[in-house]
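Exercise 7.
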Amino acid sequence: MNQLPNELINIIYVYEGRYHENYNKLIKELYHQIEWFKVKKETIISSMIQYSLLLDLEQQRYLMDTKELTFSNFFFNKR
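Solution. The predicted structure, written as tokens, is:
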């Protein structure tokens, strides 16, 4: 209800340079965080999956948790 329409927000960002610059910085940082998440997740999975039969129960749980890990949980450290 008290939220501005997206078109108006975009116009404000274009008009006021500081907000536009901060918005771009935020998007860039978020992009880097997403890429870091992908690298970390794929590295863990690819390094452990080959030895899945040799892993103990705790390591198997860690592998399964990593497979199910979402970016939001990674980013906000909800685990």
